[in-house]
Amino acid sequence: MTRRSGWTLRPRLVCALIGAALLGCAEGTGPTVDVPATPHFAKWNAANGSPQFTAVGQSPFGELDIFDPPFRAVSIDPTLDRYAVSFWGVRGQEREVYIKYLAPNGTWQTYIEFEVTAPIKRPDGSTIAVGDSILITISVDPVDFVVQLEPSGIHFDPNRPTELEFHYEGADPDFNGDGVVDDEDEYIERELLGVWYQEGVINPWGVIDSDHDLEDKEFELELEHFSGYAVSW
What we know:
single chain; mainly beta; seven-stranded antiparallel β-sheet; about 40% strand; globular; disordered N terminus
């Protein structure tokens, strides 16, 4: 997974602070966009029907065993009828999981790329020894571009952070939900769209630093702990 450069600031930007941490920047000549005080989640394109998901994974020993709730073994390319999968993360062993969605052309396209190498502490604060494991669960939302990573409270080595990639090519391009795809949606995607996070359902959403590849329609970020994450603006 390759880190990419972030957004490039342009002159004459008018910035408005939203939520607790987001700076939404607008060019003086850009369209007028009402920036929400709470996250406006990117949504799966309803024109393509309800999304179908699969999951595959790799470990140093080949194909990764993936489980779905209630943690029964499934085939290497399972359909996520419960929209969640689990696997064993092992300290010192790189594990990669790919959650894919069925595109309108009938091919499986990547939605989430998730790479875990160095979990160091369990939610109770106990140390995870090298070679020891912890069960990790990824849940996906069939409506919004929201992913929940569990268990909350797990921590990773900051020198070997967990990497997460969101691919949002399957999102509805009408980002502001006004029924028409126009220059306002293009502006939202280019200038305002980002990754938000939420630590527990009772806490507010905030913005986390991420790299936006506009051409490939993806975000990449590094994690030191687990939360809920969303492509939003």
